[in-house]
Amino acid sequence: MRLLLVSDIHGNLEALEACLDSAPEHDSVANLGDVVGYGASPNQVIDLVREMAPINVRGNHDRCCCGMVDLSNFNPVAAAAALWTRSKLSDFNLDWLIGLPRGPRRDAAWEGAQFVHGSPLGEDDYISSEFSANAALEGTSSRLTFFGHTHIQCAFTRPRRLAEPLPLERLNSASRAQVSRLKLNPAQQYLVNPGSVGQPRDRDRRAAFALYDSKKHEIRFYRVPYDIKRAQERILQAGLPEMLATRLADGR
Ligand code: ZN
Q1: What is the CATH number of the domain that holds 90?
Q2: Total of domains in the chain
Q3: How far, in Å, is the centroid of ligand 1 from the Cα of 201?
Q4: What's the CA-to-centroid distance between 142 and ligand 1, angstroms?
Q5: Rounded to two decimals, what is the model's pTM?
Q6: Using CA atoms, how far apart are residues 161 and 109, in angstroms rounded to an integer?
Q7: 157: which of 55, 81, 86, 88 is 20 to 30 A away, CA to CA?
Q8: If you measure from the C-alpha of residue 232 to the centroid of ligand 1, how many angstroms do you get, rounded to a whole number?
Q9: Cα(75) to centroid(ligand 1), Å
Q10: DSSP conformation letters of 95-124
Q11: Which domain holds residue 237?
Q12: Which residues contact 91 (CB under 8 A, 6 or more apart)?
């Protein structure tokens, strides 16, 4: 069984479409949150995700964009994007956002796995270091935790006392996508972040996603180029803050 993992799409339709074009065949899709906020295509992105992903968790931007929480914790740029997104959302898509479940979420089809936006310890927590990864692994019994929120494609495990970021094995690929592989030891616990589709922050501007193969016990991590110029133009045309366009080209 193969599960497509997408996270932090942030209303970037151009990036999502490039990921779906490059994605190999899969049996299901999990969305790890932050579908909207920042990008210029909130309704189109929600329409696609609603159709394809039976597994969803809500992100902090999803909650802010539908008015579930106030914007006081957001910086001015993120707050402006959230208000703009709220003003554009259709009633149907607003209701879909409001109804998104809080993580951790489990699914009978994917035994041993859980889905969160930030961390199993808190939906807004960041797993961004060995220290926070270790705390997250200690706090959960799930063998596999799929998370997002940091916009960094990575994985952690705990062979020793502290979790360690895992080196990914680069594979040659016939398509435009760069593919890396992580072999899973079924006896170990892992935290896996597929990276951000719509706003990568690891200085690699290409859109990120991942594929989990439960039979082969492996994760494949993908990076795909997309039409950044078009995504930027649409952000500027929408009147969103210019910085949201420029950062896409910098990958941060
Ligand atoms: Zn995000």
Answers
A1: 3.60.21.10
A2: 1
A3: 10
A4: 23
A5: 0.95
A6: 31
A7: 55
A8: 18
A9: 13
A10: HHHHTPPPSPB--TTSTTEEE-SSBTTBTT
A11: 2-250
A12: none
